[in-house]
Amino acid sequence: MNVSSITRTLALLLATCGGAAAQEHALHAAVPSAGPAMSEGKTFTESGGAALYAQVCAACHQAGGEGAVGAAAYPALRHNQKLASAGYPVTVMLYGLRGMPPLGRMMSDTQVADVVNYVRTHFDNPYGDAVAPGDVKAARP
Amino acid sequence: MAEASGFSRRKLISLVGAAAGSAAAYQVMTSLGFAEESPYRGPIRLDGDPKGASVLILGAGLAGMTAALELHRAGYRVQILEYNTRAGGRNWSLRGGDTYTELGGATQRCDFDAGLYLNPGPWRIPYHHHGVLDYCRRLGVALEPFIQLNHNAFVHSTAGFGGTPQRIRTVKTDFDGATAELLAKATRKGALDAEVSKEDQEILIEALRSLGGLDKDLAYRAGPDSAEFRGYAQDPGGGLSARPVDGEPMALHDILTSRLWRGLQNFLLYEFQTTMFQPVGGMGRIGEAFARALPPDTIRYGAKVTTIAQDGHGVTATYQDLAHGGAVRQAQADWCVCALPLTVLSQIHTQVGPKMKAAIDAVPYASSVKIGLQFKRRFWEEDEHIFGGISYTDLPIRQISYPSTGYNAGGKGVLLGAYTWNGPNSYEFTALSPAERVRRAVAYGSQIHPQYRTEFETGIAVAWHRVPFTLGCAGDWTDAARAEHYDNLCAIDGRIMLAGEHASYIPAWQEGAILSALDTVTRLHKRVLAA
Questions:
Q1: 460-489 in B: which are within 8 Å (CB) of A?
Q2: Is A18's Cβ below 8 Å from some Cβ in B?
Q3: Is B214 in the A-facing interface, judged by CB distances under 8 Å?
Q4: For chain A, which terminus, N or C, has the lower number of CB atoms within 10 Å?
Q5: C-alpha count within 13 angstroms, C-beta hemisphere, residue B52
Q6: Distances in Å between the alpha carbon of B144 and those of B9, B279, B387, B399, B531?
Q7: A97 and A57, same domain (yes or no)
Q8: B160 shares contact with chain A (CB less than 8 Å)
Q9: By the CB < 8 Å criterion, does B254 face chain A?
Q10: What beta strand segments (E) does B267-367 contain?
Q11: Residue B119: alpha-carbon gap to chain centroid
Q12: Which chain A positions have a beta carbon within 8 Å of B423's beta carbon?
């Protein structure tokens, strides 16, 4: 007698006979809505600078890059001259800065390059010299 | 509460645990700053006359108020500057009628019914956090058990078992039973002959049989032996239909490949072992009690510190008086205990040496999100017989925690509907509007409790990177940063010294904040007496 196969059969039966609840588990396992999907696992799964900015950076720097002020501040990325040198945002992404965590360590080289390029060409930032994934790779710890 | 980003300390500990057994994992945890028993040994004694010395304390969280309370008792003149209009800092409960405005400007009104609350920050107290427990006793904060492990709560994976939540009881019992059977049979076959004496092998087998729910053939299978551990397909009853029906254990293969065993670690770790506690009425009761214990007007609220200067005679903090249009004011004292989060302090011009400044700048803050959801009825108790405890899931909400109070009384209840700690989902939840965070918590949670769809009433979401007074959840040390900066962070720099969970080896726990403050004021007092 194979206990394991009996258990699997039972689980299957329960899943099919369990009514709406069990079916929902299978159907909506990952997507709760039409909104942007959330990452699975330990790294970000968004692709492209716009999506990465909106779903990660905007958490602190806000949707329009305006930053925010409380007991301390998140710097505005809008019209930010510190972005003139591409190496600066790449370094901040990979090493963090004061309270900011090194978020680039949960992103691929391409993702870091994409989001840095996005920020440097949006929010009134005119810096068109793009960063390549290889630049990010070289800058990693 | 502590867990690290990317390749986390937890992950490392879990890997070490899997590879080398729990003793090795415990050693790693200890070296990383977890699993330390609090060295608190009772109230500190600051004997000797400080001769009217004054101390300016920055931040009215638990660290700042611990420092203020002990220094006041020792005869110091103390004053606290606090950014918020309430005391407690991260020790905080949101109750019905409260409003909360996050960075970015979104304001939420908490519409929970009377008596229901969310603890956005700390929410449970280990029995070995002696400092927190002693202050609760001394300040009259009533405690009740916090249920961390509930065998009848769920572990859930979107992939394992077709996405159907499994009871912790059966996953844990069946995993333990199956591994006990394997080890017992391997022992019988002589696989351990080189490691374990014959006499010990017999005792080992008896222990495995006793603790694993094995039958006389050393098998873990449906029957009265396993049922006494894992429960029954039909529980024993009374009268004619009383006979219990034994349940069929899950196959080890299914448990292993579902990865549901991952969730069980949350009940084994030292910091989560029974007994845990919570204050009756919300964690915020501790901060409120501290504030009441201080002399009237010790705390100046709505004070945003902008610079901290010192010379050979004293310390001057410049601050904006937020209740009066940001009017610039100054506070002066002989000494300063700065209990501001490093996210904030790193942006304040602070007149300290390069070593302390580098330490202040060296610690990123963890990201965390908590979402409280009020439901029309306590369906988890009424339908699923879950009284307190936590279900763990690989969905972005990560956890659902059931209230550890008000059991079996019917009526409404508030669940902790999401609790993320670092990782991508923390940032992704934070980037959403509060309403969308709540909506998603309901949508995800309904995969575990379908009753969400009809019973949900109202929710509130706190994303710690948008909290105006901390800009993050807690100090997220790495071993390398600790080795380089920790001692410099804790040193006294002229007349300035720091306190807070970030200046402790119990990061993100209230105990760390309290012990840090006690250590700091003890060293300060020695210096004052020596002067």
A1: 463, 465-472, 476
A2: yes
A3: no
A4: N
A5: 0
A6: 30, 6, 14, 21, 45
A7: yes
A8: no
A9: yes
A10: 276-279, 299-300, 303-310, 315-321, 327-333, 335-338, 349-350
A11: 10
A12: 39, 42, 106
CA distance B146 to B371: 18
Q: How many angstroms away from the CA of B433 is the closest CA of chain A?
A: 9
Q: Nearest Cα to B75, choosing from B427, B425, B487, B524?
A: B524
Angle between helix axes B62-73 and B284-293 (nearest 10 degrees) is 30
Reply yes or no on whether the pLDDT at A21 is more than 80: no
* Contact: B7, A42; criterion CB under 8 Å: yes
Residues 97-116 of A with CB under 8 A from B: 98-103, 105-106
Q: Which of B162, B424, B470 sits opposite A106 (nearest CB)?
A: B424
Residues A106, B5: C-beta atoms closer than 8 Å: yes
Domains and CATH numbers, chain B: 36-88+293-362+476-530 (3.50.50.60), 94-152+274-282+366-466 (3.90.660.10), 168-258 (1.20.1440.240)
What mean pLDDT, rounded, does chain B reach? Answer: 93
Q: Any idea what the Cα angle at residue A46 is, between residues A44 and A47, rounded to 5°?
A: 125
> CA nearest B438 in A: which residue?
A32
- CA–CA gap between residue A131 and residue B380 (Å, rounded): 51
- Domain span including residue A80: 49-139
- pLDDT (tens digit, 9 = 90+) per residue, B106-123? 999 999 999 999 999 999
Helix (H, G, I), strand (E, B) or coil at B258: helix
Q: Residues B143-176: pLDDT tens digits? A: 999 999 999 999 999 999 999 999 999 999 999 9
To the nearest whole Å, the CA of A126 is away from the closest chain B CA by: 25
**Cα distance between residue B26 and residue B16, in whole Å:** 9
pLDDT tens-digit readout, B340-366: 999 999 999 999 999 999 999 999 999
